Amino acid sequence: MDAIIDNLDLYLQGFGTTLLLLVVSGLAALVIGTLVAAMRISPVPSLRWFATVYTEFVRNTPLTLVLFFCIFVLPLLDVRLDFVTRAIIGLSVYTSPFVAEALRSGVNGVPVGQAEAARSVGFGFRQTVGLIVLPQAFRMTIPPLINVFIALTKNTSVAGGFFVVELFAVGRTVANARGDQVIPVLLGVAAFYLLITVPLGLLAARLERRWVVQR
Amino acid sequence: MTNVLFDAPGPVARRNSLIASIAGGIAILGGLAWIFFTLNAPRGELPGYFDPSRWDIFADPTVWRYIFVAGVWGTLRAALTAAVFAVALGIVFSLLRSAQTAWIRIPTAIVLEFVRGMPVLLMMLFILLVLNTGSFWAVVAALTLYNGALIGEALRAGLASLPRGQREAGLSLGMRPMQSKMLIEFPQAFRQMLPIIIAQLVVLLKDTSLGYIVGYVELLRVNMNQLASFYGNYYLFSFFIVTLVLYLAMNLALSWFARWVAKRTARRTGQKPPNPDEEDEELLKGVAKANAEARQMGQGSV
């Protein structure tokens, strides 16, 4: 136990970096994901096609490979950024198709009858989408989006394998230094991750429960 | 959905859409061409990344043999072993999680929550350092535990989505609850959830690459570490592209298989199976429904 207390400032530093990775790449993924989702449902075929290929391509590439690209291959292309920024780029790109799918499934989850009803009382495209479809789609996308962010939280640990000093990397260093206390050291790291993921998971489950019952 | 939102496009709208499509297509192709030419531009003394001299090692069959024997097989070996164990563990988890007795159900729920909230990579490191298993079993065990938990939740959602009458019919024929569960409900739940299970196996296959970080010899390590340092940085980019293509080939094949199974299930049962492309959403929905069901039956869920 004293291994954690002795290194508490290291832990907190690592936790700070993890939070930084989570928040910044989460926001960036939200932006890219929204763009991709918009392209995916747009009436322009070539954009739709591009968004589909992008989603398929990125979703089937392992995160380790994406981060490997950002850390080791980007310097070959004369991109000079620090490790944290490059890790954020990798995590945002990797997460963006999952955000796009969550948004798209939310829009598709609104029963078609809702849009048909709006059209049949004379609403135009703007009114149908803005007043009827999106408000319903929005709340249905919240639980899946929270799930995407939970996955992102866990995925930030992969950046720890690529020179970014966040929780996982801290845990590995401390565990190597204190071979006698590996179990408490790693459980301490796990506790920090659970501190983010479990409350988010409970929130998603609670929201989903409420809306499943309503439907 | 999209076709309800608009009126059917008339000639002007159709022409505008065509023009926008062509403009978008040109923009995308331009972007791709820009990437290609940037990569292909000479780097100081050295030629660009698509220069034949950077790819000549791939004419050597021993390179390919090494990539496949050590790399691809290393990845597939871990993925196959973990997949078998994960499905088995998922079955056990789903049975324990939907058990009648609270002191089995509630601890299982807590364990599942714990496993699902932890990074797989941390589990790998934990198993590697604490149990001293060697990197292969560390990778396999962590992947089994994590994916077993998710497959377990998917199966539980499948069990809960069955019509109540299935279980009642089994019980009324004099089957014990366990018999009805194993012989009547489980086979149906498994078939219904098969697309989701395969989609989860894609995640598992992708996650074998985390073995790179804990020192397991798989595709990424073989190509990007062993071969790239043997042949030198000159070939790093070429090895990266080959690795990417191999991973995409494996994962896309499995993803398409999941879709095919979903379509086939839909044809055979006439019901709409869960969409493997929206695995996350389907799981969330399924689990919420299963919990609601359990609450109705008077078994509180955690």
Short characterization:
With 215 residues, chain A is mainly alpha-helical. Helix content of chain A is 83%, strand content 0%. Chain A starts with a helix and ends with a helix.
Question: What's the layout of helices and strands?
Answer:
The complex is a heterodimer of chains A (215) and B (302).
Chain A: H1 2-6, H2 8-40, H3 45-59, H4 63-73, H5 83-109, H6 112-120, H7 125-159, H8 167-177, H9 182-214
Chain B: H1 2-5, H2 11-40, H3 61-97, H4 102-116, H5 120-131, H6 135-161, H7 164-172, H8 177-207, H9 219-231, H10 236-269, H11 279-296
Helix pairs in contact in B: 3-6, 3-8, 3-9, 5-6, 6-8, 6-11, 7-8, 8-10, 9-10
Describe this structure in words.
The complex is a heterodimer of chains A (215) and B (302). By secondary structure, chain A is an all-alpha fold. Chain A has a single domain, classed as MetI-like fold. Chain A has nine helices and no strands. The longest helix of chain A is centred in the middle third of the chain and has 35 residues, at 125-159. With 302 residues, chain B is mainly alpha-helical. Chain B has two domains: 10-51, no CATH class; 60-296, Orthogonal Bundle (MetI-like fold). Chain B contains eleven helices and no strands. Chain B is flat, with a radius of gyration of 25 Å. Chain B starts with a helix and ends in a 6-residue tail after the last helix. Chains A and B meet through helix 3, helix 4, helix 5, helix 6 and helix 7 of A and helix 1, helix 2, helix 4, helix 5 and helix 8 of B. Chain B: It is a multi-pass membrane protein. Chain B: Belongs to the binding-protein-dependent transport system permease family. Chain B: Residues 72-258 form the ABC transmembrane type-1 domain. Chain B: Keywords: Membrane, Transmembrane, Transmembrane helix, Transport. Chain B: InterPro entries: ArtM/GltK/GlnP/TcyL/YhdX-like, MetI-like, MetI-like_sf.
